[in-house]
Amino acid sequence: MKESFLKSIEKRRSIYNITNTSPITDDEIMEIINIAVKHSPSAFNSQSARIIVLFGTHHEKLWDITTETLRKIVPVEAFGSTEQKMKQFKNGYGTILFFEDQNIIKKLQNDFALYKDNFPIWSEQSSGMLQFIIWTAISDNGLGASLQHYNPLIDKEVSQTWNINASWKLIAQMPF
Predict the structure, then answer these.
(1) Which residues in the chain show pLDDT less than 50?
(2) Burial class (CB in 10 A: 0-12, 13-18, 19+), 118
(3) With 0-12 CB in 10 A as exposed, 13-18 as middle and 19+ as buried, what is 34?
(4) Residue 1 falls inside a structural domain
(5) pLDDT score for 134
(6) What is the CATH number of the domain that holds 31?
(7) Residue by residue, what is the 3-state secondary structure of the chain?
(8) Closest by alpha carbon to 45, among 108, 97, 98, 99?
(9) Angle at which helices 119-140 and 102-111 cross, to 10°
(10) What range defines the domain where residue 69 resides?
C-alpha cells in the first residue's frame, strides 16, 4: 500500500507560529489551490466553492479587521491573548478565504426539491473536504497553516473591503 497520502495526513497540523516567508512561489500556491478547487468533490458536481487568497498587505488587512472586530466584543482583561493570536496570524505569508456560493445552492434546491434540505449540509461538507485538501497540500509543500472561523463576525467588513459577491458565504479563514 502506498503511504504517501496517509503520511501527508499524519504530517498536517495546526501551525500557529507562521512567518511571512514561503518556500514556494505565489504561483505555486495558486496552482495548488486551483487544482484542489477543480477536483474537490461536491454534491451533484455543483462546484459551489469560492476561494480568495490574500497576500501581503491584503493578508495583513484581514487580521487587522479581525483584531478590531474582536476588540469590540472581547472583554478588555481577556483581549491580550486574543490580540497575540491575531498577531500570529498577521505574521503569516497569506490567508486563504473559503466561501460557498449560496446562489448555486439555491439553484440546486429549486432544481432538485426532493433534496432541498440537504444542499446546505452537502455544501458545508464539500467545503470541509476542500479545506482539508488545500491544508494538506500546502503542508506537503512546506507551509504551516491553521483553520480559523471568525465568521460571521467579520463577514460584512470582509465583503465590503474586497468587494465580495453578495451570494458568497464566508466559511473559514486559513492563515499560512
Answers:
(1) none
(2) middle
(3) exposed
(4) no
(5) 98
(6) 3.40.109.10
(7) CCCHHHHHHHHCCECCCCCCCCCCCHHHHHHHHHHHHHHCCCHHHCCCEEEEEEEHHHHHHHHHHHHHHHHCCCCHHHHHHHHHHHHHHHCCCEEEEEEEEHHHHHHHHHHCHHHCCCHHHHHHHHHHHHHHHHHHHHHHCCCCECCECCCCCCHHHHHHHCCCCCCEEEEEEEEC
(8) 108
(9) 140
(10) 11-175
Q: What is the pLDDT of residue 3?
A: 75
User: What is the crossing angle of helices 26-39 and 119-140, to 10°?
Assistant: 140
| pLDDT score for 87 | 98
- As a residue count, the chain comes to 176
Domains of the chain: total = 1
